Amino acid sequence: MYQYTEFDKAFVRARAAEFRDQLGRWQTGQLTEDQFRPLRLQNGWYVQRYAPMLRVAVPYGEINAAQIKVLARIARDYDTPDAALLAEAQATQDKIAGLAPKLTTNYGHFTTRQNVQFNWIPLDKSADVMDLLATVNMHGIQTSGNCIRNTTTDELAGVAVDEVVDPRPYAELIRQWSTLHPEFAHLPRKFKIAITGAIEDRAAIGWHDVGLQVLKNDAGEVGFKVLVGGGMGRTPVNGVVIREFLPWQDIMNYLEAVVRVYNRWGRRDNKYKARIKILVKAEGQRYFDEVETEFREILERDGAPHTLPQAELDRVKAGFVDPALNLPESTDPNFNAWLAQAEAAIGIEAAKTPAFARWLARNVRPHRNPLLRAVSLSFKRPGYAPGDATADQLDAAAALVEKYSAGEARVSHTQNLLLPWVRLDQLHALWLEAKALGVAQPNIGLLTDMIACPGGDYCALANARSIPTASAITERYQDLDELEDLGHIDFHISGCINSCGHHHSGHIGILGVDKDGKEWYQVTLGGSDGKDLSGAATPGKVVGPSFSSFEVPDVIEAILDTYKQLRVNTGNGKQEAFIETLRRVGHDPFKAAAHAARHPAEEQTA
Amino acid sequence: MKIITAQEHQAVESPAVLSLANDVDPRTLDLNGVTRIDLHFPAFTDGRAYSQAFLLRRRLRFAGELRATGDVLIDQLVQMRRTGFDVAVLKDGVDASAAQRQLDRYAGFYQGSAVDTQPPFAKAA
């Protein structure tokens, strides 16, 4: 992964010092609450329902073992509320009708934007935490606020078999360019960039303010397809192509043009209409023309100072060389023998242990190096909110990352941890340890590998809780055969229309809404994040009036039962996936099943 | 960067001094004979004047004074300096004592700016 230079390290330390200065001035009254808020937000510090929340940046999801250990230490030593605060918070949560799981402390939470959050760190400890993060080159820069946020990418970036160009060096260059950009710190609204370099879009680029696909043109030159104007929230919109091919050298110049026009033209009178998607929709070609004019002026009149030289790309690329794993090279005469032997050994273990075979099929993905695999540790298991990891689990995960993945991992946008450099001959040993740690559920891509925001248990914005719904589904679908039979399903839960749980892009989406002070849930069907199975990015459609929290698990079950009745075989012995059946037969039978599963009476008595 | 108080800031009625609302496109202006342009931050979270300053200083090569007015706080001074402002009128009641250490804090930045136009990688080349 990218190696921080002295400049990069000093920069992160300066940012931590700046935050301590700002915190101190707020504590002594030199900064008002309103003045301090945007400053702390741009360092990742929110104040949530009961306590502050810290969002730590994990640039494009790439993280090393030493960094995970520091996250473990923060969870253990800092993510602890005052006992009275926790008691009061729990008492308040207990008053909400329906299941109320216990609030938990001392854990990190993997987010859909590949970051890590903590929920209970007192604000007076915040500067100490930033100093601690800076010791491993981490920070919360621009993880919130109306600025350019963390750039996200494919969790398989750099190792995927279908990758055309490794997007990580470009993601790192965008990180640098966007970090404390002087002109773009106070945009109309937040601004999110996603980048992929693979054929399949696993980075949901159509759902971002800017989506980038790194590709090669017919001449073999590297460039970007640029999408603009995607976003979720109240008005889900998919990005549109503004450039089919932008030479890689111009990416910063072009982003500067895109963001400058947005900064000048984007609406600031209504926060629900302030994202770039609204500007792009309202202005259409006029916005495109203005960006192209601005881009030309940057090139011709400003002299294009941010045109990337090959030397700078090479410098950054040098950080992304493959780790030395002491394996035969593909040109080595022993390569095939090594591969055959490792595969045979795995085959024997898989034949002996069906659980291992299941894990291999579900949680282990191919790697561009045939001797390696990319392995997902599943943080979707009963008893924990999706994406939560305790201090001990983070420490143990760091140890696995060190031992089995050359010290490097990825936070995935599906809220798991991916180990990108696992040797074929170490898969079984890794499985045993992951199983002991409780992160070897073979459910990657299945119903229980759901995406969920923290919701109304923690978040100040939420209209309803996400975690109880997530756990109800997790508990109902524990039978691995049943889960496997249901196949791949993107199940996404958001506690409010801000859509942090990406409900718009779920095959099945759940959105928490507030009616008369009670929690209700809208169910949407047929959304896509852009992956091959789901087709082009598109928002799901609402099935009808919202359901009570008591009804939701039964509604999901009814929808899934409908799928089982209607699915057909697709040839080659495989059955249709849920999304394929839905697309083929349409929404009506699923809607009918969902409505038939209503049982308002139970809501009264509970 | 010069920091002045609201009392020291004089609104001047002169063709040489322009005062721009933050939704004006600076490229529509006649800058002949203009020596000072006051740009406005209605709220410090409204960043449009940064783009105006950039366009004036960098694109249009405006060499006169760019003055930041309105909701000007010390934590935005670095951004103002980098986008081309040379004078900032601190909002009434803002304590300026912590300002200089903000301006001195970072040894360098990742981007070129309106005044230091080359990013580090271009300087290294």
Distinctive features:
heterodimer, A: 606 residues, alpha+beta, Alpha-Beta Plaits, six-stranded mixed sheet, five-stranded antiparallel sheet, globular, B: 125 residues, alpha/beta, TIM Barrel, 18% strand
Describe the structure.
- The complex is a heterodimer of chains A (606) and B (125).
- Chain A is an alpha+beta fold and 606 residues long.
- In chain A, strands 16, 17, 18, 19, 20 and 21 form a 6-stranded mixed sheet that branches.
- In chain A, helix 3 (65-77) runs antiparallel to helix 13 (391-404) and helix 7 packs across helix 9.
- Chain A is globular and about 65 Å long.
- By secondary structure, chain B is an alpha/beta fold.
- Chain B has one domain (2-124): TIM Barrel, CATH 3.20.20.
- Chain B has helices spanning 48-59, 77-83, 99-104, 120-124; strands at 2-4, 17-20, 36-41, 65-70, 87-89.
- In chain B, strands 1-5-4-3-2 form a 5-stranded parallel sheet, covered by helices on one side.
- The longest helix of chain B is centred in the middle third of the chain and has 12 residues, at 48-59.
- Chain A binds chain B through residues 7, 10-11, 14, 17-18, 21-22, 25, 30-31, 35, 38-39, 146, 176-177, 179-187, 260, 263-264, 268, 297, 301-303, 305-306, 308-309, 311-312, 315, and chain B through 23, 25, 44-48, 50-52, 54, 58-59, 73, 75-76, 78-79, 82-83, 95, 98, 101-102, 105-114, 117-122, 124-125.
Q: Give, in order, the helices and strands of chain B.
A: EEEHEHEHH
**Mind telling me the CATH class of the largest domain in chain A?**
Alpha Beta
Distance between the termini of chain B: 29 Å
Total count of strands of chain A: 21
Q: Provide mean pLDDT of chain A, rounded.
A: 96
Largest sheet of chain A: 6 strands, mixed
Main sheet strand line-up of chain B: 1-5-4-3-2
Helix-and-strand structural type of chain B: alpha/beta
CATH architecture of chain B: Alpha-Beta Barrel
Q: What is the CATH level 1 assignment of chain B?
A: Alpha Beta
- The whole-angstrom Rg of chain B is 15 Å
**Oligomerization status of the protein chains:** heterodimer
Strand content of chain A: 15-25%
The CATH architecture of the largest domain in chain A comes to 2-Layer Sandwich
